[in-house]
Amino acid sequence: MRLEPMLDMVVNKLLNRFTALEGQHVVVRLDHVFSAFSGDVIRKICCETKEDLLDDPVFASHWFDLLQTIIKSIPLFMGFPFLVQIIGSIPESFLLWADPRSQTFNDFKKLAVEHISEAKCEKEDTDTQNKSINARTSLFRHIICSDMPQSELSTDRLSKEAQVLLGAGTVSSARTLEFISYYILANDHIRFRLQRELSDIMADCPKVMPSLVQLERLPYLKALIKEGLRYEDRFPSFL
Length: 239
Description:
Elements: H1 4-21, H2 30-47, H3 61-79, H4 82-88, H5 92-98, H6 103-129, H7 139-144, H8 155-186, H9 188-198, H10 212-216, H11 219-231
Helix pairs in contact: 1-2, 2-8, 6-8, 8-9, 8-11
């Protein structure tokens, strides 16, 4: 439940973007939209980021393109794992010159390192002063405050884990949203039935957002989500 206010904020931002585009006859690619939306959610879960991909005028299409390039290269790296070491030895400046889009990952890596370092400093302060840790929450704050051995809590390792979570969390969630949205829009009987079920609970949206508990009680919405998760299985490798 701690994440619910954050989710409400990101959803409201997405709704505001769509409202602003209404009547402008602009083509919007939902794969870009959901990639930006999912990216913002996972970034906030991991590192409490304030900058949002949804603020980008074209819904951070460069972020979507970068992830697609990475996905296409996964089979190659799985078949020839030594390529990872070779690419790792190439200077970062050259990689950025070859593909400027990778700067997005570098920016997130820097953000993750700063966030993890800050969380470690806070943990040291709370341990020293015997205080409880502050109310802010993120995945890596919880990991740092866990009982995991220190050998597994290096800043370098955690920042790399953050990058993996950012990519995998964005792609898996965005593709599921794309899949479900397509079938809702393409099938009138699905869309009309869902609209009827949501009509009461969404009557005051966006002023009053329904809670996750309320949404979980809607049987047809819940069935659509489960069917989307069951059918949408296009990721070329295990996460």
